[in-house]
Structures
1.
Amino acid sequence: MTLTTPVVEITNLKKTYMLGKVPVEALREVNLKVERGEFLSILGPSGSGKSTLLNLIGALDKPTSGKLLIDGVDVSKLNDNQLTEIRLKIGFVFQFFNLIPRLSAKDNVELAMSIAGMSKVERTKNTEQLLETVGLKDRMNHKPAELSGGQQQRVAIARALANKPRFLLMDEPTGNIDSKTAHEVIELIKKLNAEGVTIIMVTHDQNLAKEAKRTIQVFDGVIESDMVN
Ligand SMILES: Nc1ncnc2c1ncn2[C@@H]1O[C@H](COP(=O)(O)OP(=O)(O)OP(=O)(O)O)[C@@H](O)[C@H]1O
Ligand SMILES: [Mg+2]
């Protein structure tokens, strides 16, 4: 594989859900290429297909038709084990932080590390490094309930980075925090991108979308525009 392989390459992608007997065309003929190092936002109104697209890119769901390559690999050709493997190469961040309440920030991040071949000492070291990256070294032993919304989301971002993913997928990462705290989260996301992390972020907030380097706008299951910010 060459360095120029896009992280995501989508051709004529369609997703139709069946609601009982009624087909819902969530995505129609989507084409998209995302290169390594990009910071892409996906903007669109409620119901336009943003999460559907993100879930397909994350190999969490299967398209109805069309082609999806992740790191040059055709996802439709993978078996369940291979799908699990490819998902480990992707970092997920959601609107609701989904941290484990009983565990400290440190343990939430460490738990996510795939432990194959990594000693406890190494896991601890990597966890501390990640929490330092997201500015929470002094909060490592706090449980989620002892952290602000923005801090919880930063733990979730550290956790998403635990397995050195090829890219980060974020669905409304600031949707559940106030606008001031949202600012610190978006600054962190920008910092990570400046350090080389590829980011694909879904939002319905135009101001947030503009923080990315590139924005695609989705309406009714179709990409209507693709712009550099
Ligand atoms: N599991 C499902 N079964 C049936 N229809 C679905 C399913 N999931 C989503 N849809 C429909 O597909 C369309 C796209 O939904 P999607 O969740 O991708 O929108 P979205 O852009 O993420 O919206 P929001 O901003 O509200 O999160 C909507 O019309 C939705 O009702
Ligand atoms: Mg959504």
Note: The first helix runs from residue 50 to 57.
2.
Amino acid sequence: MRTYSKSPLNYIGGKYRMLSTITKFFPRDIDTMYDLFAGGCDVCTNVVANKTHANDINHFVIGIYETFQQMDIDSLLQTIDSTIERWNLTMHDSDGFLQLRQHYNNTPFEERNPIELYALVCYSFNYQFRFNNQHDFNNPFGRNRSSFNATMRKNLIAFHGKIKNIQFSSKNFRELDLSFLSVGDFVYADPPYRITTASYNDGKRGFKGWSLEDDLILFDLLDCLNANGVKFALSNVVEHKGFENEELNQWMAKYAVHEVGCNYDNSNYQARNRNFITREVLVTNY
Ligand SMILES: C[S@@+](CC[C@H](N)C(=O)[O-])C[C@H]1O[C@@H](n2cnc3c(N)ncnc32)[C@H](O)[C@@H]1O
């Protein structure tokens, strides 16, 4: 069985656990792969392609990857270790974490250090990226749970080797020019799911919540790619706790729909009550 490498970021909404389920529907022999909503990069780092682009509107996360890319693995690990040492970061005592968070947030925006941000994420609650509307990192301390442990280190080493040649960007997907893509290329889209509540941020400035308009513009973009012979796969949730994404349901009817997850709220497992169901799909145009 194939093993997959895991993002060193533990990204919320990351697709690591679903990789074997979704990648079996991906095309073979991809020339250019474009991951439109790359997040923790669990998908684009586990797909073989001649060239890879990874985009995410979250410039903080992309800034971390670009910084990783610029450093060799030894100096990267050394810099992370010395940051942890300098701020006395441990999983049990919040002092160092709070001091580093304050230091990071007090640093002028352009001078902020992505490695310090990565260290903060490693010691924060659920390893989440959360910023308020002043662009301050505001995730709390991950007491007794989060740290840059041996597994994170191992994942980082594997990840670093895989992102060497990825071309990163941090744009709103609406602003991307994908006209260079053609037959043989593949776009993967894993946007925020409109009817679920996963939050990657506080929904302010540039990282607004996902709207119906976003869904519709994305569907148009995917239709356009389809017309140009570009293959695509879209991950999304059609039904969630009694809500249905009707526009998605209508739009996807013209493509192949693969059921990739149907979960019941544990407490209602017996009842199979529709109000507790989450139905996840992968839509492909091939
Ligand atoms: C479901 S997550 C992607 C997770 C990713 N597939 C992984 O495995 O880690 C959705 C991502 O979309 C990004 N996003 C939200 N709105 C966006 C937009 N308008 N343009 C580009 N990216 C956006 C979020 O920052 C988030 O990282």
Note: The mean pLDDT is 91.
